[in-house]
Specification:
The protein has helices at about 45-55, 85-95, 100-105, 110-120, 135-145, 165-175, 220-235; strands at about 15-25, 70-75, 125-130, 155-160, 190-195, 205. By secondary structure, the protein is an alpha/beta fold.
């Protein structure tokens, strides 16, 4: 029996998870299917594989997004983004090597979202966000705000972070020294949640309070909690 949704004290929609997945921490690029047109970095394969595990295979008959091509919004949340691509492009520039146009394309964090929206036939709004205290609360806030729009039925929320390298580790340390509370995960990690407005008797499982400390999950711990709980609950009802 699906519980009645608890009204949000902010007046925003109460969220329910229709589907969820996570990959990592510790997924390696070699373990992830390559993404055509993307090279060198594990970030884009990580995002794509997490979405595939959340939504299933792309196609018009996909039951989760097939009926909602125009009303599915997509949000990608990350602090450091595709640091591998950014660093590689910078290293090539400094060393005087010829710049690779593929690196220029994928250095834009939302490039992988363009690829995914084509694969899944989605034409709703696409956005990317970051925050110095991690992206969990801000990402869920963004989903709530998007669902206030009558033209949006659901939000595909993706959060991804690569394991810290020397540059991004220093950046996270700087953020911490400035009051930020977000920590990098211990390995490459991504989470995907398909969020809808919770309704009494509706499908999905409502969001719950986070359980996991940051630890190896870093600032994605809260979203990992939601994904793991939703997978367990949805699996028990199917």
């Amino acid at each position: 029996m699906t519980p009645s949704p608890t009204p949000s004290p902010t007046g925003r929609p109460t969220l329910a998870v229709a589907a969820a997945a996570r990959v990592g921490p510790g997924a390696t690029g070699a373990e992830l299917p390559a993404v055509p047109g993307f090279i060198a970095s594990a970030f884009n394969p990580l995002v794509r594989e997490t979405v595939r595990r959340c939504l299933g295979e792309p196609g018009a008959d996909n039951p989760l997004v097939g009926p909602h091509p125009d009303t599915t919004a997509v949000v990608l949340a990350t602090v450091a983004g595709d640091a591998t691509t950014s660093d590689l492009a910078s290293q090539r520039l400094v060393s005087g090597r010829v710049h690779n146009p593929l690196l220029f394309l994928q250095s834009v964090t939302t490039s992988i979202l363009g690829h995914l929206t084509i694969e899944y036939g989605l034409t709703g709004p696409v956005s990317c966000l970051a925050a110095d205290s991690g992206v969990g609360a801000e990402a869920l806030d963004a989903a709530e705000l998007l669902l206030l729009d009558d033209d949006i039925d659901q939000v595909l929320l993706i959060a991804a972070e690569l394991a810290a390298n020397p540059r991004t580790g220093a950046a996270f340390a700087h953020l911490a020294a400035s009051g930020g509370t977000g920590l990098p995960p211990g390995g490459d990690l991504a989470v995907a949640l398909l969020l809808r407005e919770a309704e009494a008797g509706g499908t999905g499982t409502e969001l719950a309070e986070p359980l996991y400390p940051q630890g190896d999950l870093g600032h994605l711990a809260a979203l990992v909690t939601q994904a793991d709980r939703a997978q367990n609950a949805l699996g028990a009802t199917r």
